[in-house]
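Slide 14.
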Amino acid sequence: MIYKIQREPSSRRVYVWRKLKKLGAFTLQDAVFVLPYSEKTFEQFQWLAAEIVEMDGEAAVWESYATTNSKEKALVQKFTDNINVQYENIIQKLSKIVDVADISKRENLLRNIINKYMDIKYYDYFKSGLSDKIDEILMREQKQLNEIKFNGEGE
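Slide 15: predicted structure.
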């Protein structure tokens, strides 16, 4: 997608930037953003383009492909690197949750982490291996919480 939007009010540019970031899109050049092709991502770009036009901006969405395998691999790697940074953040938060003694607080923190993880996972277009690692950690943490609650500890 390529777009152009007026500088003022700046809230419109920020809105578009946040939407693109949430989608996991990254910049090729200035206002040229890419996502891996799927019906879902194409539709999301179309919806965002329509919003940009409603803001008196210009937007175009098109399908393209990498011209070489090395360029395609480089694009895939950019998406994977981006998602892995976010997954590493989740893993870091999960490593700290074990130290929370209050079970209710620990469950709330875990719920918040899971919600954030699910948001990230939705845009994991190339299925990072870190996702499996997080799934394992979450299962262990949930099992441990259940054992603590079942045994009456932490009350």
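Speaker note: Residues 69-151 form one domain.
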